[in-house]
């Protein structure tokens, strides 16, 4: 039973991390209708910048904001330089552009940071907890705390602020929103700032949790999280979170308890195809 | 020509066949597929299994391989093509990952060890190798180009063009979207199956990682680079992306970056590709007054 709870806690932690990455994708898809594959490269960049600043200063409190700022910049640069000019073409054009950006950035990480796995030796200033024999490590506690805080913050921004209103309006109909006096290009850039900063946090959390930062760490999330936004219902933020948590828990428990012959990473896609056959609009999507 | 350049050219010819298949799906029918390598792999595995375990020769296996790959394309395409464009992109990525992991984890397909001992192709009693294998691939490439060209002039092809340009209008004129998208999908995947069979008998050893998502992306790069929806675009794209790594061999460490950069610059500044409508090459070589009626 102890093992089960530890697995469950790990699964929810994975799900929380997935949801931090997937939310950025869902936000971007909402306002721009682009599948932002390069988001995973932004996440990797977050891990690298975080690690770099952490090694320089030894402080996570400096590393996190620095990585968030760098990623916000990178995200908006991708939006301004690649996506916006390609909006007038059919959707596969920006999608291919996004894949190209992702591959190019991955190579740049490899050339700059080296092809090896770097460790992220951050220590948390508080101890782990043991509840009835179930050990909860400081890394898991931080993942829970940080993800909860980020999710709350995002929920607040999207539902309660003027920027959130502009984002929702832009995602419903960009042109009408523009006609109503919403600066849609500013709103889109702010969406990238928001999503990319959250991705930076996810990158650092993953780096510390697995004690690994490496050039291709974005390869699996890049496509898995696309499957997650599809499962959740394209553009639906609660759907993205729900799908991420379900996948995190499902993956961990299935690997731990069921002897399935397929690798962990193809589960997301099998789940996606199953959901699409049963509910083509996604779990929480509407047509 | 030495053996080395003949091998490179043979690879290029095979990739051109597969890219032509992708072009039918993406270029003619306007349906994004990012899982084309899966069908290339299905063709390769089918031919390998039929000739090693099934005891057939390449020539008797080939029609079965093409039919089988097309049939799997039909089965996988049927639910996928009903989806919206963005869903389709993600679904095809998913298909690629799933097919690759099935090859990798199911012992019947050789698992992580791959499949070896695939016989080479014999024609009129002689084993085809070197330049002769290249000629065989070129003959098949010519056939694929011929079929592509016939398709663009056929009723099915015209229906696909209409759907690509304006699906609602086309379906209100009685063009069934799912039927013609499926037709293009099956045709495209069958071409990938043909390429896969040639690849398996060229390499004589295949493993799951040969058919990963990265390959799907480079297939897509070839089509985009050459010109989406043009007849010769995929061939030109396969040629350029096949020759470039050889030319830039000293820069081997930057090869992937170079490929990504080419794809990025191309899609950003010339999304129609080198041979596409309104591209630089077209404008340069256009005879005055000839193409202007189209614009």
UniProtKB/TrEMBL annotation, chain A:
One of its GO terms (biological process) is D-alanine transmembrane transport. This is High-affinity branched-chain amino acid transport system permease protein LivH. Pfam families: BPD_transp_2. It is a multi-pass membrane protein. GO terms for cellular component: plasma membrane. Keywords: Amino-acid transport, Cell inner membrane, Cell membrane, Membrane, Transmembrane, Transmembrane helix, Transport. Belongs to the binding-protein-dependent transport system permease family. LivHM subfamily. It is found in: Cell membrane. The chain crosses the membrane at residues 12-31, 61-83, 95-113, 134-158, 188-210, 222-247, 267-284. GO terms for molecular function: L-isoleucine transmembrane transporter activity; L-leucine transmembrane transporter activity; L-phenylalanine transmembrane transporter activity; L-valine transmembrane transporter activity.
UniProtKB/TrEMBL annotation, chain B:
The keyword Transmembrane applies. Keywords: Cell membrane, Membrane, Transmembrane, Transmembrane helix. GO terms for molecular function: branched-chain amino acid transmembrane transporter activity. CDD domains: TM_PBP1_LivM_like. One of its GO terms (cellular component) is plasma membrane. InterPro entries: ABC_transp_permease, LivM-like. It is a multi-pass membrane protein. It is found in: Cell membrane. The chain crosses the membrane at residues 6-26, 33-50, 56-76, 88-110, 130-148, 182-202, 222-244, 256-276. This is High-affinity branched-chain amino acid transport system permease protein LivH. The lineage of its organism: unclassified sequences, metagenomes, ecological metagenomes.
């Amino acid at each position: 039973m102890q093992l089960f709870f530890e697995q469950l806690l790990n699964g929810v932690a994975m799900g929380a991390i997935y949801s931090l990455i997937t939310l950025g994708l869902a936000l971007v898809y909402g306002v721009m209708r682009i599948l932002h594959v390069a988001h995973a490269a932004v996440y990797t960049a977050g891990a690298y910048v975080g690690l770099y600043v952490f090694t320089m200063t030894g402080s996570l409190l400096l590393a996190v904001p620095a990585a968030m700022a760098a990623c916000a910049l990178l995200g908006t640069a991708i939006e301004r330089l690649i996506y916006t000019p390609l909006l007038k073409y059919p959707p596969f054009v920006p999608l291919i552009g996004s894949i190209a950006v992702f591959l190019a950035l991955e190579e740049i990480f490899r050339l700059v940071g080296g092809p090896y796995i770097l460790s992220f030796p951050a220590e948390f200033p508080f101890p782990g907890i043991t509840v009835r024999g179930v050990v909860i490590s400081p890394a898991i506690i931080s993942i829970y705390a940080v993800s909860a805080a980020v999710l709350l913050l995002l929920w607040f921004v999207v539902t309660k602020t003027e920027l959130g209103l502009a984002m929702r309006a832009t995602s419903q109909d960009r042109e009408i929103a523009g006609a109503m006096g919403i600066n849609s290009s500013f709103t889109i850039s702010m969406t990238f700032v928001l999503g990319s900063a959250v991705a930076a946090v996810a990158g650092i959390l993953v780096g510390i949790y697995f004690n690994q930062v490496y050039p291709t760490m974005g390869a699996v999330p890049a496509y898995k999280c696309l499957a997650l936004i599809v499962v959740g219902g394209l553009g639906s933020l609660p759907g993205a979170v729900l799908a991420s948590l379900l996948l995190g828990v499902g993956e961990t428990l299935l690997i731990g308890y069921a002897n399935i012959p397929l690798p962990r990473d193809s589960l997301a896609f099998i789940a996606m195809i199953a959901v699409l056959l049963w509910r083509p609009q996604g779990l929480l999507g509407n047509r | 020509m030495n053996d080395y350049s003949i091998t490179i050219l043979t690879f290029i010819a095979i990739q051109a066949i597969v890219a032509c298949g992708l072009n039918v799906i993406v270029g003619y029918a306007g349906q994004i597929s990012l899982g084309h390598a899966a069908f290339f792999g299905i063709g390769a595995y089918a031919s390998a299994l039929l000739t090693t375990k099934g005891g057939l020769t390449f020539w008797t296996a080939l029609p079965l391989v093409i039919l089988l790959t097309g049939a799997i394309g039909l089965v996988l395409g049927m639910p996928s093509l009903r989806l919206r464009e963005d869903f389709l992109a993600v679904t095809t990525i998913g298909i690629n990952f799933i097919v690759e992991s099935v090859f990798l984890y199911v012992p019947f397909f050789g698992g992580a060890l791959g499949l070896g001992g695939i016989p080479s192709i014999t024609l009129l009693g002689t084993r085809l190798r070197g330049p002769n294998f290249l000629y065989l691939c070129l003959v098949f490439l010519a056939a694929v180009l011929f079929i592509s060209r016939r398709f663009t002039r056929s009723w099915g092809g015209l229906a696909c063009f209409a759907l690509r340009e304006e699906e609602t209008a086309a379906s209100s004129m009685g063009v069934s979207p799912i039927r013609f998208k499926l037709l293009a999908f099956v045709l495209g995947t069958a071409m990938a199956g043909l390429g896969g069979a040639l690849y398996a008998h060229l390499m004589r050893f295949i493993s799951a990682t040969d058919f990963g998502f990265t390959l799907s992306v480079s297939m897509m790069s070839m089509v985009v680079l050459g010109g989406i929806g043009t007849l010769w675009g995929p061939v030109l794209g396969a040629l350029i992306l096949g020759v470039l790594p050889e030319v830039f061999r000293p820069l081997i460490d930057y090869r992937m970056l170079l490929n990504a950069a080419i794809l990025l610059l191309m899609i950003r500044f010339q999304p129609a590709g080198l041979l596409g409508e309104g591209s630089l090459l077209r404008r340069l070589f256009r005879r005055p007054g000839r193409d202007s009626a189209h614009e």
